[in-house]
Write a structure and sequence with these properties.
Layout (H helix, E strand, L loop, with lengths): L7 E8 L13 E2 L3 H4 L12 E8 L2 E7 L5 H10 L9 E3 L5 H4 L2 H7 L8 E5 L7 E5 L2 E6 L3 H5 L3 E5 L4 E2 L5 E2 L16 E5 L2 E4 L8 E5 L3 E5 L7 H12 L4 E7 L7 H13 L4 E5 L4 H10 L12 E4 L2
Parallel strand pairs: 4-5, 5-6, 6-9, 15-16, 16-17
Antiparallel strand pairs: 1-3, 1-18, 2-18, 3-4, 7-8, 7-12, 10-11, 11-14, 12-13, 14-15
Helix pairs in contact: 2-4, 7-8
The structure holds fe (ii) ion.
The site of fe (ii) ion has 8 residues, from α3.
C-alpha cells in the first residue's frame, strides 16, 4: 500500500486533559488563547481526548472527527466555542472502547443531529464494543461499554476496520496493529469482557489515523496508544509505505509506567527523527519531562483548543 500525499493536515484538539489560554502560538501550534478568542475563553479540559482533523488536497478540505472526549458537555461546549461546523464533517472515527474517548459521542450526535450529514461513516472495530474494566489490588472499576446499536441509531454507517484502509478523505486508518514492541506491554490492570469472563485487554481494534503530508512525511494521530506508541509508529510507516515520520500527536499512555519503559520509548522516538512531537492526554508528567529534556526542539505543548498544522 502506498498512501498518497496530501498538502496539509490541521488537527484541532477539541478535548484534552489540560488547557492554557495564556499560551502563545509556537512552532506548528495556533492557540485558542484569550487574545485570539478576544475574550476570556472558557474551554473545558477533562481526562479525555477528541481530535478534529482537517485534510487539505488542492482546494478541497475534508474533515474527520476522531474520538469524542469523556463527556458530551465538554465535547459539545468546546466544539461550539472553537467555531467548528458539524455540518462540514465528512467522517467519524473512534480509536478504542474507553469512555474517555467515546463518552461524548452519543451526546454530540444528539446535539448536532440536525447539522450532521445523513449516512456519515463511523469507523471503528468490533473490539470497541465490549465492556471494559480497570482492576488493581482487588478493586474492579467499570470503565465503559459503547453499544454499537446506540451508534447506528443516529443515521450513521457503522464500519469495522480490521485491516488498514485509505479513506476517501485522504488519510489512512491503521486497522489492527499486530506487531507490538516487546517492551510495550499492556498493563494487566486493563481488562475486557470476553465470553462472560474478564481477560487481559488487547485493544486489538485500536485505530490510528495516519496522513502523508507532501515533502514532509507521515503525521501519526494517535489516541491512547494502548498497544504502544513505538509499535504504532512502526506500523504506520509499514502500512503507509512512507518511512519518514514528520509528526506524532496524541496520548502516548506512559502515565504511571516505570522509568525504564519511559526511557526506552523516548529513545525510540528520538530514533525516528520526527520533526514534531505533540504529547497529549495520557502521556503523563514523567514522560513529558523526559521528552521536554531530550526532544526540546521537536516538542510542542498541547492545550485544549490548539490547532496543530503540518504542511504548507
Ligand atoms: Fe484515553
Amino acid at each position: 500500500m502506498s498512501l498518497p500525499p496530501v498538502d496539509r493536515v490541521s488537527i484541532t484538539t477539541v478535548v484534552d486533559n489540560s488547557v492554557d489560554v495564556l499560551r502563545a502560538d509556537e512552532k506548528v501550534a495556533r492557540r485558542w488563547s484569550v487574545l485570539r478568542a478576544r475574550k476570556f475563553t472558557d474551554l473545558r479540559a477533562e481526562h479525555g481526548l477528541a481530535h478534529h482533523v482537517a485534510v487539505t488536497r488542492g482546494r478541497e478540505t475534508a474533515r474527520i472527527a476522531f474520538d469524542f472526549g469523556l463527556t458530551a458537555e465538554s465535547m459539545t461546549h468546546n466544539f461550539r466555542e472553537l467555531g467548528l461546523d458539524a455540518g462540514a464533517i465528512d467522517a467519524l472515527a473512534l480509536s478504542h472502547g474507553h469512555t474517555d474517548h467515546f463518552g461524548g459521542l452519543l451526546g454530540f450526535l444528539s446535539t448536532y443531529r440536525g447539522r450532521l450529514r445523513s449516512g456519515l461513516r463511523f469507523y471503528g472495530h468490533p473490539n470497541h464494543y465490549v465492556a471494559r474494566f480497570m482492576e488493581r489490588e482487588g478493586t474492579r472499576v467499570f470503565i465503559g461499554r459503547l453499544d454499537r446499536a446506540d451508534v447506528g441509531r443516529w443515521d450513521l454507517d457503522v464500519v469495522d476496520v480490521p485491516e488498514p484502509v485509505i479513506l476517501g478523505e485522504g488519510v489512512l486508518l491503521s486497522g489492527e496493529m499486530r506487531t507490538p514492541e516487546p517492551y510495550e506491554a499492556i498493563p494487566p490492570s486493563l481488562r475486557m469482557e470476553q465470553a462472560g469472563a474478564l481477560v487481559q485487554d488487547t485493544f486489538i481494534g485500536e485505530q490510528t489515523l495516519v496522513a502523508h503530508v507532501r515533502d514532509r512525511g507521515l503525521v501519526v494521530v494517535t489516541s491512547c496508544s494502548h498497544r504502544g506508541i513505538v509499535g504504532i509508529c512502526r506500523h504506520a510507516a509499514q502500512v503507509s509505505g512512507v518511512g519518514k515520520i514528520h509528526a506524532v500527536i496524541g496520548g502516548f499512555h506512559l502515565s504511571g509506567l516505570d522509568a525504564e519503559r519511559i526511557d526506552r520509548v523516548v529513545e525510540a522516538l528520538r530514533g525516528f527523527e520526527v520533526d514534531y512531537l505533540v504529547p497529549q492526554h495520557c502521556t503523563g508528567a514523567e514522560a513529558f519531562v523526559q521528552l521536554a529534556q531530550r526532544m526540546a526542539k521537536e516538542l510542542v505543548v498541547s492545550s485544549t483548543g490548539s490547532t496543530f498544522t503540518f504542511g504548507g
